Amino acid sequence: MTENKDLISAYHTIEKEIEALNVMKTQLDESLIKALDLMQATKGRVIVTGMGKSGHIARKIAATLASTGTPSFFVHPAEASHGDLGMLTTDDVVIAISNSGESKELSDILVYCKRYGISLIAITKNPESSLGKAGDILLRLPDNGEACPLGLAPTSSTTATLVLGDILAVALMERKGFSTSNYKQRHPGGKLGAILQKVSDLMHKGDEMPLIGENASMRDVIVTMSSKMLGCVGIVDTDGNLTGIVTDGDLRRAMVNSSDNDLFAKTAKDIMTKNPKVTTADVLVAEVVNFMNSKSITQLFVVDDKKPIGVIHLHDCLRAGFTIDKKSTNNSNVNKAA
Fold first, then answer.
1. Are residues 223 and 270 in the same domain?
2. Taking the CB of the first residue and of the last residue of the chain, which one, N or C, has fewer CB atoms within 10 A?
3. What's the CATH code of the domain at 68?
């Protein structure tokens, strides 16, 4: 059976774009290092600009840089010629993108950069173009043609530009030691924000914590558990260290196994579960959810050097949008403070 021509076209496109990336890989040199040095050292922002399809890629590069620790935004070349050049300062770095290097819409930005000494990184396939000659640093795009059968529509060239932008963003992240905590601060909403939430973001703390001393009466245990409505009470010794936990399950079992007189003669220490499972404030909530599910528990105390600083309940996690990954068994980071 003859292979479908659409699949043949798809394979050709993929191979052509991979070819472009391989060519670009061989062209990477010290210019990339210089561009990264310049971007890392800037006291201002990284301004990314380009026209047409290059402009769309430039917007994405600016967004990626901004979300990964490098202040950046996109300036449209046409708008720049009508007042937006005022967004550029001498502390900034400009990245100008044009596959051919001859986008006339970029000319005002290039002149402005030269006039005011603003550093310019040129991304183009043609070092001898207007853009290639204007740039303080040149990052070359591959010149192996487009995947488009007419050789006209930006395809391979925009893919290569997109990857080059990712190269810059990733290298800057690594240079700056950009962490998941930094990333979360820039992505507070949506699925990413939820995935990166830590226990400290959801835990009950301060007066919301149900805590009581080891010698507290059963009456005090019941009153504290009922008033805090978290289904548990943390038991602390005279030094404030967490030594045990009484859950509603512990309380029910104690009631079943004791008469009323025996039950109310007991103290918190008598019925508590010793050395309870705990977590720390910096653990991801997603890890804690799967840990609690694997251990069939619904709450964990959060400790700092054995002292309780919070408590997190499974229901709070589920309300925040977390789901239980039944396949997950990796919980080594959750109970590390036990």
1. yes
2. N
3. 3.40.50.10490
Phi, psi (rounded to 5 degrees) for 310: 180, 175
Quick one: 299 and 226 in the same domain?
yes
Question: CB under 8 Å to 116, separation ≥6 — which residues?
Answer: 88, 90
Angle between helices 248-257 and 218-228 (to 10 degrees): 150
DSSP string, 116-169: HT-EEEEEES-TTSHHHHH-SEEEEPP-S--SSTTS-SSSHHHHHHHHHHHHHH
The count of C-alpha atoms lying within 13 angstroms of the C-alpha of 234, restricted to the half-sphere facing its C-beta, is 30
Q: Could you give the CA distance from residue 53 to residue 305 in angstroms, rounded to a whole number?
A: 55
**Rounded Cα gap, residues 333 and 337, in angstroms:** 9
Among 26-30, 253-257, 287-291, name the one with the lowest average pLDDT: 253-257
Burial class from Cβ neighbours inside 10 Å (0-12, 13-18, 19+) for residue 103 reads: buried
The pTM of this model reads 0.65
**155 is a domain residue:** yes
Edge-first strand order for the sheet with 119-124 is: 72-74, 46-50, 93-97, 119-124, 137-140
Q: Write out pLDDT tens, residues 102-117.
A: 999 999 999 999 999 9
Report, as an integer, the average pLDDT of 224-229.
90
Neighbours of 179 (CB within 10 A): 11
* Whether residue 128 has pLDDT greater than 50: yes
Residue 150 domain flag: yes
Per-residue pLDDT tens for 228-270?
899 899 999 999 999 999 988 888 888 887 766 677 888 888 8
Q: Note whether 130 and 218 are same-domain residues.
A: no
Distance, CA of 201 to CA of 105 (rounded, Å): 47
Q: Distance (Å, rounded) from C-alpha 212 to C-alpha 160?
A: 62
> Is 185 within a domain?
no
What is the tens place of the pLDDT at every residue in 177-194? 876 666 665 555 555 566
Instruction: Specify the CATH number for the domain of residue 211.
Output: 3.10.580.10
Pair (99, 170) in one structural domain: yes
Domain residues for the domain of 272 are 199-319
Residue 324: other Cβ atoms inside 10 A: 15
